[in-house]
Amino acid sequence: MYWLTIDAMNVTLRYMFTFLLGCMAVKWRYHQHEL
After folding, report:
1. DSSP letter at 35?
2. Where do the structural domains in the chain lie, given as residue ranges?
3. Alpha carbon distance 25, 17 (integer Å)
4. Of 1, 10, 17, 31, which sits with the fewest C-beta atoms within 10 Å of its C-beta?
């Protein structure tokens, strides 16, 4: 159970980090397109 919880947390953190990077990339690309 303990290791399962750690794995779930790692996957969630990785997913959130990837999602955040994706949002930043989209915003940056949109900003560059505006300029």
Report:
1. -
2. 1-35
3. 12
4. 1
Q: What is the spatial distance between Cα 26 and Cα 35, in angstroms, rounded to a whole number?
A: 14
Q: Which residues contact 4 (CB under 8 A, 6 or more apart)?
A: none
State pTM to two decimals. 0.58
Each residue's pLDDT tens digit in the chain (35 positions)?
677 898 999 999 999 999 999 999 999 888 887 66
Q: How far apart are CA 25 and CA 35, in angstroms?
A: 15
Phi and psi for 32 in degrees, rounded to 5?
Answer: -65, -35
